[in-house]
Amino acid sequence: MSAPVNRTPEPLRPPEHDASRQRQRSRQPEETRQRLLEAAWTEFSAKGLGGARVDAIALRAGANKRMIYHYFGSKAGLYLAVLELAYDRIRGHERALAVEDVAPAEGIARLVAYNFAFCRDNPGFIHLLANENLHRARHLAKSAKVRAVNLPVIDTIGRLLARGEADGTFRPGVDPLDLYITIAALGYFYFSNIHTLSVVFGRDLARPETTERRSALHVDLILRYLAP
Fold first, then answer.
1. Domain 75-226 in CATH: superfamily?
2. What is the spatial distance between Cα 1 and Cα 101, in angstroms, rounded to a whole number?
């Protein structure tokens, strides 16, 4: 007759241990998707839609390239997701400015300075928009969310203008969209042409003191335009 086998009972795991493992598993797909987006941002902003390669994106993300098709359907679908991410970023940081919690002129000044700084700090954003404009925005036109992400900033500017007009800070009749396009154009033009302008005029326009001065100039220009 064989001796009984002593088995040490498996320790009971607290419920929170299983919940933690479940959360970790649920985060993994989202983390993979985010890595692919970040890698695609770098690849698309450097090489455009035509020059970017899904193999290079997958390698940079440390993921299997089949995951690109799993999450985004196609290379074009991934490209559109990167464009949406670009607008999510600029709008998300913009909301953090709390421009409606301050005086109208200060709110507009914050928006102008922020847009300039975002273009300065995110050259990939400039490259992505330039590339999509070459495609006449045909990919962005397929987005179901791009308008919902971007339209609120126009409403915010409209409320700032209305407050400024009511207290005599701003002149009447300024269209919020026209104003936003002007604000965006000032930063976009400067940084999309900074290399050619630097060569043509023999001045390093990317120097920190130069860009700081330029940002202050843009704020002054817009506030003078809005003055009654």
1. Tetracycline Repressor, domain 2 (1.10.357.10)
2. 84
Letter for the amino acid at 160? L
For 108-161, how does the pLDDT look when each residue is reduced to its tens digit (9 = 90+)? 999 999 999 999 999 999 999 999 999 999 999 999 999 999 999 999 999 999
Given a contact cutoff of 8 angstroms between Cβ atoms, the answer to whether 145 and 83 are in contact is no
Radius of gyration of the chain (CA): 25
Tokens coding 10: 């498996």
Q: Report which DSSP code applies to 218.
A: H
Write the CA distances from 213 to 113, 122, 186, 207, integer angstroms. 11, 19, 13, 10
Q: How many CB atoms lie within 10 A of CB 25?
A: 9
Helix (H), strand (E) counts: the chain: 10, 0
Please tell me the distance from the alpha carbon of residue 113 to that of residue 8, in angstroms, as a whole number.
66
Question: What residue ranges of the chain are covered by domains with CATH 1.10.357.10?
Answer: 75-226
Q: Amino acid identity of 148?
A: A
Per residue in 178-201, pLDDT tens? 999 999 999 999 999 999 999 999
Q: How many CA atoms lie within 13 A of 119 on its CB side?
A: 25
Pick the CATH number of 18-73 from 1.25.40.20, 3.40.640.10, 2.40.160.40, 1.10.10.60: 1.10.10.60
Q: Distance between CA 218 and CA 112 in Å, rounded?
A: 7
3 state SS of 169: coil
